[in-house]
Every structure is written in structure tokens, then in C-alpha cells.
Amino acid sequence: MSDIEEFDISVDSTPERDHVQVSGHLDIYTSSRLREALNDSAALTSPVLVIDLLKVAFMDSTGLGALVAARRQAKLRGAELRLVCQRGAAYRVIRITKLDQVLSVFGTLDEALAAPGPA
């Protein structure tokens, strides 16, 4: 099975938050699909953007780039980016690159949703 076949994105939006669930390999072959989903400004309009990476089996630097771009775009529209990934492959890469000091990282979706909202 190729990386592209393993990769999946689902988006669930409410007025309070946009929840993007990512699974599979987030890499050079698939990160453009995540960027496209996150660039859909018509669909993502909530003040909080939660990207759940718990089901990501592998992530490379292009995946990191997509997350940094997501943070930048969220800030431009006045939203806050929250990642769910305090374990697993995605978290290891985020921690090694020290992006956990820049990005808001939570252990569960419930923790990410319960965090205080953007100012």
C-alpha cells in the first residue's frame, strides 16, 4: 500500500471550532493534500482550528511545513491552531524540532477543546 492510499483527512466544523483529523503518512507525497484542506477558507472559519495527528504513522519535514503554514494562516484569520499529538510519530518530530515550544500541543481532543480560546 502506498503512502497516498494510507493517508486520510476528515474535517468537522462547528461555529466554535474546526476539527481536522489526519491519519496515515504525512510526508512529501501527502502534505499538499493537508495544505489544500487547510487553505479552504470557505470551510474553515471557526476561531479555533484543531488538527488531530494521533493517527499519523509517519511525518517528515514537509508535514511540519504544512503545520507551520496552518499556524500562519490561522493567525491571519484571527484563529488559534491547536494540535492533538502528545504521543506518536508526529509528536516525536514536533518535539525533536522544538516546534512544541511554538505550537500549542495537547494530549487529547477533549484537552484541546477545553483550553481557553483565543484572546
Low-pLDDT sequence parts: none
CATH superfamily: STAS domain
Radius of gyration, in Å, reads 13 Å
The CATH architecture can be named as: 2-Layer Sandwich
User: In CATH terms, what is the fold-level topology?
Assistant: Transcription Regulator spoIIAA
Question: How would you state the average pLDDT, rounded?
Answer: 89
Helix content: 25-40%
Instruction: Compute the number of structural domains.
Output: 1
How would you characterize the largest beta sheet?
A: 5 strands, mixed
Can you count the helices?
A: 5
Write out key terms for the chains shown.
single chain; 119 residues; alpha/beta; Transcription Regulator spoIIAA; 5-stranded mixed β-sheet; globular
Describe this entry's structure for a reader.
The protein is of the alpha/beta class and 119 residues long. It has a single domain (3-107), classed as STAS domain (Transcription Regulator spoIIAA, 2-Layer Sandwich), CATH 3.30.750.24. It contains 5 helices and 5 strands, in the order αββαβαβαβα. A hairpin with a 4-residue loop joins β1 (8-13) and β2 (18-26). The longest helix has 16 residues, at 61-76. It is globular, with a radius of gyration of 13 Å. The model has no long low-confidence stretch (mean pLDDT 89).
Concise account of the structure shown:
Helices cover 37% and strands 29% of the residues. The protein has helices spanning 3-6, 31-39, 61-76, 88-96, 109-114, and strands at residues 8-13, 18-26, 48-59, 80-84, 104-106.
